[in-house]
């Protein structure tokens, strides 16, 4: 089944997997305001659709996305606020909320990066739980060397945690393309795959993740986010308290039953 809204965002369904395809291939899928609005609307729709158990996010054509549409970002004569003020307000109202929408979905999200992933699109791609990239894909952060601004849409948060301070600093300052194979070696993404198998591999990953216990991805995101600021002692306490609740759920009972019966667990839908 395919459903195409008029703003260049395509929703496809593969059983319990939803696939969102960023559109605008002739311009390499820029993150225009209407595309971001459509993404937020689709996230809200999918969040409430209990038949969806995983999401794949990818781009149309030869790119994932080149990020912001700079052709729309110019100072306008007579405007009461500066361009910087207007962009910041739009980020607070729309772009930043989009990243949080993705991070708060109650099912796993897979990014399938199929070409250029540049600027703000880097934050969008890395907001997924698992990132796969085609061998020809690359990540590019032109913010500082080309524009004199900081990486955004969460890129600084993701880079520092995934690459560490040394690599994230160099990647942001130098503005060099980071090829998919290097991104995988560095731990920025999960895996680099052949171009022709990217969609197949992304869907296969999504199906695997869809079979997980309901709410498990939410629990894991919270645990890892908490671990990034907790002391070891505090994190040990956190883990014990989560087990207090999770061990009494149907998912744990099914997991134990499957283990004792030497079969694969069959977890209930969310």
CATH class (first level) name of the largest domain: Alpha Beta
DSSP E strands, number: 11
Q: Poorly predicted ranges (pLDDT <50, ≥5 residues)? A: 1-6
**CATH architectural group of the largest domain:** Alpha-Beta Complex
What overall geometry do the principal axes of the alpha carbons give? globular
Strand content: 15-25%
The radius of gyration over CA amounts to 20 Å
Number of domains: 2
Summarize the main sheet: 7 strands, mixed
- Overall mean confidence score, pLDDT: 94
Helical segment tally? 10
Order of helices and strands: EEEHEEHEEHEEHHEHEHHHH
Lay out the secondary structure.
Layout: E1 2-3, E2 9-14, E3 17-22, H1 33-47, E4 54-59, E5 63-65, H2 83-103, E6 109-113, E7 116-118, H3 120-126, E8 130-134, E9 138-140, H4 143-147, H5 155-174, E10 178-179, H6 180-186, E11 191-193, H7 198-210, H8 216-227, H9 232-246, H10 250-261
Helix pairs in contact: 1-2, 8-9
């Amino acid at each position: 089944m395919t459903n195409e809204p008029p703003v260049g965002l395509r929703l496809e369904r593969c059983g319990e997997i939803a696939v969102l395809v960023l559109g605008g291939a002739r311009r390499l899928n820029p993150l225009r305001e209407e595309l971001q609005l459509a993404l937020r609307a689709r996230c809200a729709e999918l969040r409430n659709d209990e038949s969806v158990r995983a999401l794949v996010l990818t781009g149309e054509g030869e790119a994932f996305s080149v990020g912001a549409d700079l052709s729309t970002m110019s100072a306008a004569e007579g405007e009461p606020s500066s361009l910087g003020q207007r962009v910041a307000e739009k980020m607070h109202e729309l772009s930043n909320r989009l990243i949080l929408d993705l991070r708060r979905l109650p099912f796993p999200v897979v990014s399938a990066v199929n070409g250029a992933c540049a600027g703000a699109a880097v934050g969008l791609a890395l907001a997924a739980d698992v990132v796969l990239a085609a061998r020809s894909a690359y990540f590019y952060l032109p913010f500082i060397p080309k524009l004199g601004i900081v990486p955004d849409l969460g890129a600084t948060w993701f880079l520092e945690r995934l690459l560490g301070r040394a690599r994230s600093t160099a990647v942001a300052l130098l503005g060099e393309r980071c090829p998919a194979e290097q991104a995988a070696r560095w731990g920025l993404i999960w895996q680099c795959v052949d171009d022709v198998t990217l969609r197949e591999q992304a869907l296969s990953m999504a199906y695997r993740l869809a079979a997980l216990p309901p709410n498990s991805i939410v629990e894991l995101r919270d645990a890892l986010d908490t671990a990034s600021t907790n002391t070891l002692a505090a994190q040990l306490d956190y883990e014990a308290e989560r087990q207090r609740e999770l061990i009494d759920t149907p998912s744990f009972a099914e997991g134990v039953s499957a283990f004792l019966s030497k079969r694969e667990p069959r977890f209930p839908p969310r």
